[in-house]
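Ligand-bound model needed. flavin mononucleotide.
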Amino acid sequence: MKHTGTFTACKVVTIEKLNAATSRIVFDRDVDAQPGQFLMAWLPSLGEKPFSLFTRSPLSIVVVDVGPFSHALQTLRIGDSVWIKGSLGNGFTPEGENVLMVGGGYGAAPLYSLAKACREQLMHVIVCLGAGTSSSVLLRDEFDRLDCQVAVATEDGSAGTKGLVTNVVEDVLRREHIDTIYACGPTGMLTALAKISHKHKINYQFSWEAHMRCGMGLCGSCEVSPDADPSLPAGWLACFDGPVFRKHWNAVY
Amino acid sequence: MKHTGTFTACKVVTIEKLNAATSRIVFDRDVDAQPGQFLMAWLPSLGEKPFSLFTRSPLSIVVVDVGPFSHALQTLRIGDSVWIKGSLGNGFTPEGENVLMVGGGYGAAPLYSLAKACREQLMHVIVCLGAGTSSSVLLRDEFDRLDCQVAVATEDGSAGTKGLVTNVVEDVLRREHIDTIYACGPTGMLTALAKISHKHKINYQFSWEAHMRCGMGLCGSCEVSPDADPSLPAGWLACFDGPVFRKHWNAVY
Amino acid sequence: MPLEPTLACQLNNIHLRNPLVLASGAMGVSPTLLMRVARSGAGAVTAKSCGPQPREGHPNPVMAEWAHGLINAIGLSNPGVDEEVAQLIEAQTQLTTIDVPLFASIFAGSAQEFGEVAAVISAAHPALIEVNISCPNVHDDFGLPFAADAKSAAEVVRSVKNAVGTIPVAVKLAPNVPDIGRIAQAVVAEGADVITAINTMPGMLIDADAQQAVLSNRSGGISGPALKPIALRCVAEIARSVDVPIIGTGGVITGRDAVEMLMAGASAVGVGSAFWYRGAEAFALILDEMKEFMIDHNIRDIGQLIGKAL
Amino acid sequence: MPLEPTLACQLNNIHLRNPLVLASGAMGVSPTLLMRVARSGAGAVTAKSCGPQPREGHPNPVMAEWAHGLINAIGLSNPGVDEEVAQLIEAQTQLTTIDVPLFASIFAGSAQEFGEVAAVISAAHPALIEVNISCPNVHDDFGLPFAADAKSAAEVVRSVKNAVGTIPVAVKLAPNVPDIGRIAQAVVAEGADVITAINTMPGMLIDADAQQAVLSNRSGGISGPALKPIALRCVAEIARSVDVPIIGTGGVITGRDAVEMLMAGASAVGVGSAFWYRGAEAFALILDEMKEFMIDHNIRDIGQLIGKAL
Ligand SMILES: Cc1cc2nc3c(=O)[nH]c(=O)nc-3n(C[C@H](O)[C@H](O)[C@H](O)COP(=O)(O)OP(=O)(O)OC[C@H]3O[C@@H](n4cnc5c(N)ncnc54)[C@H](O)[C@@H]3O)c2cc1C
Ligand SMILES: Cc1cc2nc3c(=O)[nH]c(=O)nc-3n(C[C@H](O)[C@H](O)[C@H](O)COP(=O)(O)OP(=O)(O)OC[C@H]3O[C@@H](n4cnc5c(N)ncnc54)[C@H](O)[C@@H]3O)c2cc1C
Ligand SMILES: Cc1cc2nc3c(=O)[nH]c(=O)nc-3n(C[C@H](O)[C@H](O)[C@H](O)COP(=O)(O)O)c2cc1C
Ligand SMILES: Cc1cc2nc3c(=O)[nH]c(=O)nc-3n(C[C@H](O)[C@H](O)[C@H](O)COP(=O)(O)O)c2cc1C
Ligand code: FES
Ligand code: FES
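Prediction:
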């Protein structure tokens, strides 16, 4: 996969609210990247934080306002610059015929390009989106338009099934044969999904998050412990080996 | 034109005597170069000296034994390495239909590739070779085989016309219309030829020599003074602007 | 069929299965990461430098690639020596099972404090204690690096040697000094057993569009390809000045780079930034290329290369 | 149509039509070559450093390109100050006709000798005398560069200032010192009017096949792209430490590089190796790119860029 650790100024072309706390920011260039790779965004004097690629051509990201940096990104105006280092890390690869994608919160973002790639290969794609409440469900229409089969779970029941998205996943697995589970979202969700995948011996590709500093495999701050998923090798770095970790039950390699 | 200032080890593939003092050394690689470009050859612990490219594919040079370094080159064995930096400088470009090439001593070497390129463009090529004595005349058969018209001048009259090659040139110019004069050889010869070309207002491309150190346009040691040819601009560097200097009488550029 | 060349070598009294040493601070910041790098082929692994107190390090951006190398100002993030020694004991237990020596690395704010940190870290019984007197990224907190001056460098070594008993001590030197050979002499005179050279070279990236320095700390340390000729020259100067083994470090990305470092006079070769340029298998790739070079040039023992170009 | 941006600027009391200054030793070693570079667009031209006696310099190889820069050990070839002053007078006569200031450059083996060489060279009435206390390539003949040490650097400046009357004096500093800001302070305290930073960084190339250093002098000075972040950091340090104008030099190959150098705190920008990377029109290309940057960023006067990234 292509990597670059050099910052490039990218101009904001459009910035569009997806919901009260979330915006999609589109930039004036393309990057060479796979779904699930990430980038580091730098705002001079403010800091630098990791974001997943939403689309690569044009380069765009989906940002949820959770603190000072993600807030500042959302207040940018058209023509303003964000300095971007990336793409970085290793993303998802389409595998199988019948696949399940599980997005928790902004975890839906990197799954969108993946779903698109899978649909282009005529794969059958089921998408489960989890969120706290109906207004936080992200990208539902976008997945619909790709002809994915979309299921939603909200903790307060305001949309779709009430409860955790993992329950919906269990439902799907009872009904369907799934070749690969893809997921991106909070660590707790991924840990639960890893358990489920282990139980059913289904191949999976999950995108893990960790606190990133260099984003380039050298500072060692983004190690993800096998506590989160016993299949993770010891010393696994989210920015360098991941963010996507792949588990193959019958891996010959 | 392509330039590189990085040394690469090149292995001697064949080494062939052209006469008592002269060898052709063929190396195990090709270079991207034009006729008339040069290279710097480094023999560790011995030094580094400039040589014209004889052929570029395979890379070969013609070396006359005039001192310690050129002598050492001739004693190399097959498989030995020479470290080569280049190609460097700016070479000849084929121009016109009827051209004259004048080689003094090893000055014949860079003209050979040029003659080949001109003949491939179906140009008519007259070659005048100058030397002290018949055994020093270089590459006569090679030019013959390209179907060039070859004239020879030796100072002792042991081959061709007796006297300086410039006399032969004057003869040719009386008989033929020449579009471009190409030349490589001792400074005195080039100065004389520049006078002749000026008198007849013929375009010319001459390859000048000077003492080279860096070969890269930075040390300033290879400046050729306009004393040698008043058409040379002040501050002209043989390694950087040359070795080939071009004079166009009706230059529009 | 040519014989497989021998890469095993000695560094002071330490046996290494090959001369490649993980450079301090590059990836190996936890026991699991040290073990990972060891498994991937390293002859020895150096832990991240630790100091007397925990340090968070600098805010982001802390690292960037530029056209000819990397630059970082991580800022010596570390958990402090009391936590670190526990981690090194854990690392040591694991590394022993695969016979890869562990080198500790320490820094501090005064000669005396260096001795204190060294004493604590000795409890982990590292094969070597590397004394980092050359980090360029903590100027504001610690003033000039000790490697700036022969006298203060020597004081640090004296203090550390007194504190660690028989554990051999390496001193890590900085390239931005006028005469690195003289500093090497000063620390060897105080008993330094090994010299590690070099740490990163101070530098700064500016983004013209942002009209700002790229790193939050503004300046940082240059590593990777651009550093190689600077490191080769420092190693050669040191090799001509003192008689202890050198861990030649800086810009080693390929097997050929490693060979050049040995030829400059190094006995072992530090590798850090290569992970970025070559990926997770960096050590294995470099080792394969070294073997290939040795076979091509009919060299049977890696020791034959040491100092060849001096 | 945006207004054409202004590149003209002042360096000390010297008016420059643009901030690009030919760096000492790069191409401009004769009156004709200085004139050539001036015609090609330079705002000022610095002559090759000259010393008390003629020097041939080192044998070949004296220069090579590597993947990330150049390295040279020309060895301060020069005809000696008595011949040099005649050449500078000739150069001065020609340069005056096109209004491009000439900077002289000198080196010597002692503070006193620096003063003597400066006195002789003053006869050419250069707009500035640059004192090269930082050449890395003549170690064997002259010992450590004076730039290694604040005290000896200051002595040299005192001696030169006494010798040259009202001609402004620049001091050229080396990057391989622990604290370049302190050395800048020391020379400014003795009256240095301008700081030039930096000279080349000491380095060494080894050819693994040859098992030898590439340059006959073994070590040499690194210039070109790899030097840029080192130079930017030195310039920024100096700009924060003293209040005299800086000729920021090192790895400027493009207009963007020149802009970064100004942003780091330089008032003018030295250019040397760019001839190799950009060809004979290097100055014109860099100037065009600077103008383009200024137009794009709506900057009317080049002075607005100075120190922007500090
Ligand atoms: C691989 C990866 C991909 C991501 N993709 C997206 C995305 O597509 N959209 C999105 O909105 N967010 C994404 N994030 C999370 C995003 O980085 C944080 O939301 C952002 O850093 C918050 O910064 P802040 O200043 O707004 O909030 P802060 O107040 O600084 O932090 C809020 C929370 O964000 C997280 N965070 C903060 N700094 C970092 C850091 N350096 N590295 C990792 N996490 C951090 C922590 O969980 C923290 O508690 C991703 C994170 C990672 C690691
Ligand atoms: C552009 C150019 C192309 C050349 N092409 C060829 C060629 O194709 N074949 C060939 O045999 N020779 C060529 N030469 C000349 C060749 O460089 C010298 O013959 C060689 O350097 C002699 O070195 P030496 O040690 O054998 O003799 P030395 O005893 O060192 O010198 C003998 C003579 O060679 C010349 N010379 C020596 N050093 C240099 C130097 N660094 N730069 C230029 N000239 C020098 C001088 O005229 C000197 O008097 C070329 C020179 C130049 C500048
Ligand atoms: C991210 C990073 C962190 C580093 N941290 C330390 C450190 O804690 N202690 C130390 O002595 N050197 C540290 N260094 C310097 C390296 O050990 C090494 O000397 C330098 O990077 C040059 O080698 P390289 O070009 O192979 O990376 C660090 C280098 C990098 C890139
Ligand atoms: C071939 C060459 C010769 C040099 N000679 C001198 C010199 O005589 N005096 C001096 O002060 N600097 C000399 N330098 C250093 C340059 O002036 C400049 O400081 C250095 O090359 C960095 O700038 P650059 O990257 O633009 O080349 C020389 C540099 C080169 C490449
Ligand atoms: S963020 Fe530095 S190693 Fe992953
Ligand atoms: S040989 Fe150095 S400029 Fe031509």
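The mean pLDDT of chain A is 94.
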